[in-house]
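To close the chapter, one final illustration. This time we ask the reader to focus less on the individual chains and more on the assembly as a whole: which components sit near each other, and how the overall shape emerges from the parts.
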Amino acid sequence: MSFKKQENQMIEVCTRLLTEGEVDVVIGFSSDQLGGCAIPSFIRKPLDVKDLKWDDTCTPNLAKYVIERKEKVAIIAKPCDARALVMYQIENQIDRNHVYIIGMECPGMKLSDGTPAPGCQECTVRTPPIFDILIEADKIQTFEVSELSSNRENSKTSFVESSMEWELEDRLKRFQDEMQKCILCFSCRQACYGCYCKTCFIERDVPNWLPQDLDISTKMMFHLGRAMHLAGRCVECGACERVCPSGVKIRYLIQELTDLCHEQYGYRAGMDMNETPAMATFSLGDREIGFLGGDQNES
Amino acid sequence: MSLEAISKKRIKELLESLGEGYKLVAPAWEDGKLVFKEIKNMDEMVISHELPYKSPKEFLFPQLERMMCFDTTGGVTVEDQSEKTIVFGVKPCDLEALKVLKAVLAQGKFHDAWFVTRMEKTIFIGMGCSSEKPGCFCAQRGINRKYSSTCDVFLRDMGDHYKVEIITDKGRSLFNGLDLKKFKFEEVSYPENMAQSSRPTDETPRLLEIDAEENVVFNQVDWDRIAERCLGCGICTYLCPTCHCFAFKDVKEKDLSVRYRVWDSCMYPKFTLHASGHNPRSTKKERFRQRVMHKYVYIKQNQGYTACTGCGRCIRSCPAGMNIKTVVSEIMEVLDE
Amino acid sequence: MAQQQVIMDNKSSLDKWEPKIIAFLCNWCSYAGADLAGTSRLQYPPNIRIIRLPCSGRVNPLFIIKALTSGADAVMVSGCHPGDCHYLAGNMYARRRFVMLKRLLATAGIEPDRVHFTWVSASEGNRFAQVVDEVVSRVKKLGPNRIAGDRDEL
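The assembled structure is written out below.
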C-alpha cells in the first residue's frame, strides 16, 4: 500500500518538474516487459511520467546514470542511490545544482524470485541522507524474514559470516571457490557506482595489471584490486552481487573493509556531504594494526 | 535418414552406451541454473525442454584456448586440447547459432584450425524446445522451436518416445554397431502428420529483420536514447550463442611462451582502442550500436542471414533491462516511416 | 593442478627454497636506511629485492597484490616514521591504506605474514637489518606463496 502512495506522490513531483522545465530528464524505474525487476528508465516528456513505477522490485542503482550528463536531471533515489550521489558530490563527479534528488524511503527491494536483493536485507539506512524532496513511506516495513536485520551485528553474520573468525584455510577456500565461478565479464565493475574511472586499472596496458587470461590469480588480482579501490567508499547497494551472471558472492570482502573503516575511522561512505572520506584523510593517532613494531593485535 | 523410436526412459542408458570414448556434455543444474557441463555421473544430467542458461558455444570455442607454445630454441608446438565430445540436448536456437559460428570460423578463405578440429570431433544431439522463457523470441526470428537440422542427430519428441533422426554421417557413425532394438519403444506407429503437427501452429508474427542500407540504420536511429540504459558490461556477448569475438594473449609459463585466445567483447572500451590512444567507439552508444548492427546488418550483408537466433539470453540476464527485441522492433518502426 | 605440482616441487626441495621478497622502500628514509645497513657492513638475509619509490604514499596497493599474484613470496613496505615524511603526510595516508589492505588480504585467506609494513629512518641501519631478518624468518615459516599464477605477461 505504502508503495502505491509513494508512487503517486513521486509521479506528481516528476510531472511538476518536467512541466515547469526545472529538469530535462527524470531518471526512474519502469516496468520490465518480461515481468522481472524494474528497469531504469529515462523520462523526458510530462506525458510519459505515468510509465514510472515504484514498488519492491526497483533494484537497480540509478546513480551511475547521473555522471557525465550535461542535462539537468531529477533522480528517483533510494537510500543507496542517494549515498552514491553524496560520494559523487564529494568526488566532484556531479554538480549538485544540476541534480534534483527525489529521495524515497525504502524498505528494501526484492529480486524477481521474491528473495531480498543483495544488500537489502542487512541495510540499515532506510531514509536517503540527502534529497531535495523526500517521499516518505507510511511505515517502513522491512522483510519479514529479517526481523533481526535492523541489528547490524546479527545481519552481518548472515552474509559476511564474520569471516575473520574462520580459519585462514577456510577463508582462502571460500575466496578461491568464488573466484572459480568468475568469468571476468566485469559486470560488477560496470554496475558499481564507485567504478567510474575513465580507464580502469585492468584496461591499462602499461603497466598491464591484468593478463587477459582466466587464471585464478588473474581473477584474484581483479577482485582484490577492485575491493581496495572501494575501501571506505562502498555504499552497500549490493549491485555487484545482483548483476553477476555467475553468482559470484564477493561482497563480503568489501563489506569487511566497510566495517573496518567504520570501526577504525568512524566513517561510513555517503552519509554526510561535509565529511572527508576516510581514505582521503588521516589522523596522527591512527592505529597501526598488524604493522611490524606497531599494533600487533592482529597478526 | 533412419528412424528409430527410443523410449524416453531409456535415453540415459542409450547415452551411456554411446558415450564410449566420448566426453558427454549435457544440461545439468549448477548453482540453481541449468547449464551445459561435462557429465561424469548420469544422475546429474537433466533431460528437459528448458533452454539452458548458457549456450554450448564454449565447447567449440572455449573462453580461454591454448593455441600454441614457443620455446627458447625457436620451436613452435601447435596445441590441440580438443576431445571427442557429444553435446546432448541442444535446442534449435543454439543449433541455428552454430551456422553463424561455422560461417565465420570455418568457411571462406581462412579457417580457424582450433574451431574446425573441435567441430569435427563434436557430435550435436538436438532436441525440441517446448518451454518459452520470458524474453524468448525465436519465432520472430523465423526459427522452428521444435526442429532444426543443423545438428548430427535430432531427437523428435513424440509424447512418450523420441524419434531419432540421423542427419549426418557423423551422427550415423555414433550408432554404428549399436543394437538399437534394446532401447526400442515398442508400440510404435507414426502418424503421417506428426511431423507437420510439431510445426508452430500459432500465427507467424512479423519477422524481426532489418532490411535497410547500413548508412540508414547507422544514422537515422536515435542510438543515444536506445543505449542510454546500457551499463556497458559484457554479459550479453558472453552468453550470446553467436558472439565470437576474441583476443590473443601471449604469456610466459616457466620457460615457454604460450599464445592464448580469450573471448573479447565489443561492449568493452578496450576492444577498439588504437595504439595511438584514439578510440573509434569511445562511448556505449557506439558500442551498443555495433552490437546490434553486427547481428542484424553486417553479418546479413556478408552471409545473407541475421546472426540472432532469438534465444533471449541477453535479455534475461541484462542487469539494466536492455532488450534487443524491442530495440530491433523500434528500429523497424523508424525504418517503416 | 599445475600449481599444486609447483607447491609439491617446492616442498620437496624446501630446504633449498629461499623466499623472494619484494621490498618497496621510500627514497628519503628507508632506502637510505638500507644504504646505511650496507655501508655499515651489517649482515641481513639476501632474500629481499628492493624497489625504490619516492614515498611510502606512492605504494599503490595494487603493487602489492600484483606482486603476490605474480609469485612474490612476500612483500615488505617501509617508509619514514609518521611525522617525518619528506612530503609531510604521504606516509600518513599510506598507513590507512595499509591497514585496509592487510585486513582485505586476511579476509581473502592470504596469510597476514605475507605483507609487512614498517617504518625505518635514514639513521636506522641496524633496525633495517633487524626488520629484514624478522620478515625473512616469518616468511620462511609460511613456505612458498600459494596464490601465484604460473604464468606471466610477456
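Chain A touches chain C through 54 residues (CB under 8 Å). Confidence is low (pLDDT under 50) at residues 145-158 of chain A. With these observations in hand, you are ready for the problems at the end of the chapter.
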